[in-house]
Amino acid sequence: MTVKIGLVGTGTVGGGCIDILQKHKQDFQRHLGVDVELVRVCSRNPEQAAAHNVADIFTPDYRDIVNDPKIDIVVELIGGTTVARNVVLEALAAGKNVVTANKALMATHGQEVLDTAAAAGKEVAFEASVGGGIPIIDPLKHSLIANEIGTVMGIVNGTTNYMLTRMADNGMGYEDALKEAQANGFAEADPTADVEGFDAAAKIAILASIAFNSRVTLADVYTSGISQISPVDLEAARGMGYVVKLLAIAHRTPKGIDVRVHPTMIPATHQLATVNGVYNAIYVVGDAVGETMFFGAGAGSGPAASAVMGDVLEVARHVQQGVGPLVGCTCTDQLPILPVDELQMKYYIRFTVSDKLGVLAAMAGIFAQYNVSVHSVVQHSKKESTVDVVYVTHVAKESDIKAVIEEIAGLDDVLQGPPSLIRVEE
Ligand SMILES: NC(=O)C1=CN([C@@H]2O[C@H](COP(=O)(O)OP(=O)(O)OC[C@H]3O[C@@H](n4cnc5c(N)ncnc54)[C@H](OP(=O)(O)O)[C@@H]3O)[C@@H](O)[C@H]2O)C=CC1
Ligand SMILES: N[C@@H](CC=O)C(=O)O
């Protein structure tokens, strides 16, 4: 039996999938006994299909794919949560299996998508939604299923890791680093999702849901991105023996799930500190297995298409054999999400202030007022009459840090809007 595929979205990832299908179709049959055929592709842009030599099966209307009775698997690679949601739900309703790389969709409408799939008796596979080419969803659902997972955390956004690496190692500015990441096909269509942390938040929501068997959505994840971070912070961190990474963190605690995304200072000796460029790494701790770490390219055409095509072949095998997925994603527990204000950790905070007598004393008074003890204060001359003041605190409560920042930001001599705020993990 030949399993028939319809592909919606022929951009970075979709194009990579077409390339893999063209290159390895015979190998799939020979090595795996799975015979797949791409029978229809859709995007808004026929030139993409022509560039991949599939102009003859192009349609601009995704309904030509979801309503085609001969198609077994619909691959959704357009992104976003509007048209993509329609594609996925309509495909399931029409009796197709679905493969998607869409973390925004799965982290926002995952419950609806999975319920619809269950009701239709069809499969939804989404390995490429987290970690690009890194296998992580399948290991969590299968290889590590015997564990109670306590922690899932890591670098899950290729764009920001690439940017932070270029800014730290090559002194590149924020905008130039972002342009390079976009040119490499790492960034989302709207890169705000990458730089403001929402892409990583969607990914950690998906991972936490699977790891803790409890539904976590994008809205549950405290999220702060890298747009306030400047090369000054990366340099200051380096001087203190740290590296700055955008970390996605999920811990199961006795009180509930602690889940967040934020720029984080980690010691230069930490396992995640040397994960650079577009590479991602996800650290998982289970009660039986102990520590594990999954590493690989987190974005880009080939890596993401590798994960998508892995799902396509697995689902195609199920279609051929007439079986369903071994483990779904039902999330039968309902653990509470912990409020971020109760977190306790160390903080790096940088303010730009007027170089005037009395400013530092006023700031010190505000730290003292909230009982936030400061471990070190460093001043960097910026330009005439302004100075960057960096504080590193002892362990403090998040709500107190927020109050300190709000009061200091209100001082006349504090010049920038929000300061650089980086949480410190030892
Ligand atoms: N890029 C990466 O490294 C990774 C991306 N992903 C995910 O994969 C998905 C695709 O990303 P990527 O390939 O980078 O995105 P691209 O922007 O490169 O490609 C999107 C494709 O979808 C098409 N499209 C968009 N809207 C519609 C629509 N309404 N109807 C039909 N076609 C449409 C686009 O056509 P047109 O160009 O004409 O607009 C284009 O062909 C996203 O969910 C993303 O989050 C996951 C892992 C890695
Ligand atoms: N924009 C994402 C793409 C992969 O998920 C990233 O940069 O990681």
TrEMBL record:
Binding site for L-homoserine: 188
Any single Pfam family the record assigns to this protein: ACT
GO biological process per UniProt: methionine biosynthetic process; threonine biosynthetic process
Enzyme's top EC category: oxidoreductase
Domain of life: Bacteria
EC nos: 1.1.1.3
Metabolic or biological pathway: Amino-acid biosynthesis; L-threonine biosynthesis; L-threonine from L-aspartate: step 3/5; Amino-acid biosynthesis; L-methionine biosynthesis via de novo pathway; L-homoserine from L-aspartate: step 3/3
GO MF annotation terms: homoserine dehydrogenase activity; NADP binding
Record-linked InterPro entries: ACT-like_dom_sf, ACT_dom, Asp/hSer_DH_NAD-bd, HDH, HDH_cat, HDH_CS, NAD(P)-bd_dom_sf
Binding, NADPH: 103
Binding site for NADP(+): 8-15
Keywords: Amino-acid biosynthesis, Methionine biosynthesis, NADP, Oxidoreductase, Sodium, Threonine biosynthesis
Domain ACT: 348-423
Catalytic residue list: 203 (proton donor)
Reactions it catalyzes: L-homoserine + NAD(+) = L-aspartate 4-semialdehyde + NADH + H(+); L-homoserine + NADP(+) = L-aspartate 4-semialdehyde + NADPH + H(+)
Cofactor field: a metal cation
Similarity comment: Belongs to the homoserine dehydrogenase family.
Role played: Catalyzes the conversion of L-aspartate-beta-semialdehyde (L-Asa) to L-homoserine (L-Hse), the third step in the biosynthesis of threonine and methionine from aspartate.
Name this polypeptide is given: Homoserine dehydrogenase
Originating organism: Parvibacter caecicola
